[in-house]
Automatic annotation (TrEMBL):
Reactions it catalyzes: L-methionine + ATP + H2O = S-adenosyl-L-methionine + phosphate + diphosphate
Family: Belongs to the AdoMet synthase family.
Cofactor comment text: Binds 2 divalent ions per subunit.
Domain (S-adenosylmethionine synthetase central): residue spans on this chain: 123-237
UniProt lineage: Bacteria, Pseudomonadati, Pseudomonadota, Gammaproteobacteria, Chromatiales
Binding-site positions, K(+): E45
Protein name (Swiss-Prot/TrEMBL): S-adenosylmethionine synthase
Biological source species: Natronocella acetinitrilica
């Protein structure tokens, strides 16, 4: 974070938020392609508005048959994601059985294809751009506390909704403000939590439920500052949500997906993109590196930036910011990182096993942190800490 003292706020959204719905659909389409062809090229976008879902994008597969197969299966994939998110009402959010689904698939441009799958057999970056990764020791998952708690609130409420009889519906948003002193969390200063609910549930009933079974369970009183403030459904009754209440679009929650604003963002969204697109895979690699730095005790906080040129296999630049907490020189780490980590697109894909169809699971509660399974998503592990320490000089100071 860019300050040592003061308040910092992050937000999260539930699986039933219309933007997150679109992320899940796009990643479900990606998984379907990768299941049939691990080297498929996918850039899938989804739009949700009222009772209509539009799925589009550009794709390349080993054979036309798979392309047509996924195109035909797309409506069923969409309806499955809608049901899993908890939707079921055309009056209150969207009905998976009666909604209109439009599918418009295109083939990947051959000019882009030539730049990615190069004649020299190397894999070029699928786009230009810069990507950031971040890690901090303020939580066990090496994530910033505000966004971690924001995710936890929605995870807890989501569990209550799935159990039934809570009156909660799928759409929800959370926001957590943490007070920092000397660069470390000193307590939670405020929480905003809004949750869609059944029409026959009163606002006081929803507020009491959220306080007693969500807020108090996730943020105990001894974790709150003396001036703690709480807003529960501050706009009042909220029964109309999902695409009925707001339009959704893939890639519109990039800060929720990452670090809650605690570090810069390169601007590229993740969902619906195969790992040749470095705005996804290299962002995972940057998180992987930053985790190693903090887990190795080389710094308390670390931001890593990677940058690429489309069609080229090696990064244009690698930079590290230890935010004044480092036990080695940042220049030593910048030199060490390429010796420990293969940062070519092919190297990242192989190291992090990114050709597997398990992306839909990343499309809710963030792509990083404790709600991402390290067994399935290796960027949340740090197996090379000893190698990184050695490459950085082996001697820690401070």
């Amino acid at each position: 974070m860019l300050f040592r003292n003061g308040l910092f706020t992050s937000e999260s959204v539930s699986a039933g938020h219309p933007d997150k719905l679109c992320d899940q659909i796009s990643d479900a389409i990606l998984d379907a392609f990768l299941n049939g062809d691990p080297d498929a090229r996918v850039a899938c976008e989804t739009l949700a508005a009222d009772s209509t879902i539009i799925v589009t994008g550009e794709f390349r597969t080993a054979g036309e048959e798979l392309f047509r197969e996924i195109e035909a299966a797309a409506p069923d994939i969409v309806r499955t994601v809608l049901r899993d998110a908890g939707y079921g009402s055309s009056e209150l959010d969207i009905d998976p059985d009666t909604c209109r689904i439009a599918v418009h698939f295109n083939h990947q441009s051959p000019q882009i294809a030539r730049g990615v799958d190069r004649a020299d057999q190397q894999l070029g970056a699928g786009d230009q751009g810069m990507m950031f990764g971040y890690a901090t020791n303020e939580t066990d998952a090496l994530m910033p506390l505000p966004v971690s708690l924001a995710h936890d609130l929605l995870a807890r409420g989501g569990d209550l909704r799935r159990r039934g009889n809570s009156g909660l519906r799928p759409d929800a948003k959370s926001q957590v403000t943490v007070r920092y002193r000397d660069g470390k969390p000193a307590g939670v200063q405020s929480v905003v939590l809004s949750w869609q609910h059944e029409p026959d549930v009163t606002l006081p009933q929803v507020q009491d439920l959220l306080l007693e079974q969500v807020i108090d369970e996730v943020i105990p009183r001894d974790m709150r500052t003396a001036d703690f403030r709480l807003w529960l459904n501050p706009a009042g009754t909220w029964s109309i949500g999902g695409p009925k209440g707001d339009t959704g679009l893939t890639g519109r929650k990039i800060i929720v997906d990452t670090y809650g604003g605690a570090c810069p963002h390169g601007g590229g969204a993740f969902s619906g993109k195969d790992p040749s697109k470095v705005d996804r895979s290299a962002a995972y690699a940057a998180r992987y590196i930053a985790r190693h730095v903090v887990a190795a005790g080389l710094a308390e906080r670390c931001t890593v930036q990677l940058a690429y040129a489309i069609g080229h296999p090696e990064p244009v630049s690698v930079s590290v910011d230890l935010h004044g907490t480092g036990r080695v020189a940042e220049s030593a780490l910048e030199a060490a990182i390429p010796r420990v980590f293969d940062l070519s697109p092919r190297g990242i894909i192989e190291e992090l096993r990114l050709n597997r169809p398990n992306y839909r699971k990343t499309a809710t509660l963030g792509h990083f942190g404790r709600h991402t399974d390290p067994a399935e998503h290796p960027w949340e592990t740090n197996p090379h800490t000893d190698a990184l320490i050695a490459a950085a000089g082996g001697q820690l100071h401070g």
